[in-house]
Specification:
About 10% of the residues lie in helices and about 75% in strands. It contains one helix and nine strands. Strand 1 and strand 2 form a beta hairpin.
Length: about 230
């Protein structure tokens, strides 16, 4: 007489575990061993070109995309991740003036290559948070053209310098090997110089050096894939 109730309870427990995600290895946010991973990255970047007084010269909403690869080291209640990240951002620019006075400024080829260190912490079997940052290099192209009656001012350069970023975010495990990462980053690349030349009728008259930097706040979505080549073994 007790077999039916016990069997029903067992079935209910299995069904509840399946619906709620359970605690099986396939539902864990972090594994107990070190793992390699790859992660495509896309997001929105609110970029600002700064002068040497840290005043905004130009700003615009940009699209950014790239990828990262690294190793996640198992730690208590989470993991420590070391990764290499490369990303690219949209070009942007401004045009101002009227009549005989016109000026155009463009920022192109905006790139970054970073070495990052992140610390992940688990909240539940599927949900977690993280924080950290990285250092590396970044750069962009700066192009300036202006005309004032009979005078022309122009200059272009390819700037590259030390770059850094910091941020954090939220993690959600879709499976043992796939984790969604929604995070915020602040990124900055150091100052660089561009020489502007004043000409009249093609004859150089004077030159001036301007100093600029690029900084941005970013919201990024990445899909972290652990052991992506496991099926090839």
């Amino acid at each position: 007489m007790r077999i039916i109730p016990l069997t029903a309870l067992s079935i209910l427990a299995v069904a509840t575990t399946a619906l709620c995600g359970g605690t099986s290895r396939g539902d864990e946010l972090f594994a107990s061993e070190n793992r390699f991973y790859l992660a495509p990255i896309i997001g929105a970047s609110w970029g600002t070109l700064l002068d040497d007084s840290y005043d905004s010269v130009a700003n615009q909403d940009l699209f950014t995309a790239g990828g990262a690869g690294g190793v996640a080291f198992a730690r208590e209640r989470g993991q420590l991740r070391m990764e290499f990240e490369g990303r690219y951002r949209d070009s942007f620019g401004i045009s101002q003036g009227s009549g005989p006075v016109q000026a155009t400024l463009n920022v192109t080829d905006n790139w970054s290559a970073m070495v990052n260190l992140w610390r992940d912490f688990s909240i539940t079997d599927r949900l977690g948070i993280y924080g950290g940052g990285g250092i590396g290099g970044g750069g962009y192209g700066l192009n300036f053209d202006a005309s004032v009656i009979i005078f022309d001012i122009s200059g272009s350069s390819r700037l590259s310098n030390f770059a850094w970023q910091a941020g954090g975010g939220v993690l959600y495990a879709l499976s043992e090997r796939i984790t969604l990462d929604l995070g915020y980053r602040f990124y900055n690349v150091g100052f660089g110089d561009t020489t502007l030349v004043l000409e009249a009728g093609g004859v150089p008259l004077a030159s001036q050096t301007i100093t600029t930097s690029f900084a941005t706040s970013e919201m990024l979505l990445s899909v972290r894939i652990y052991e992506p080549f496991r099926s090839w073994r």
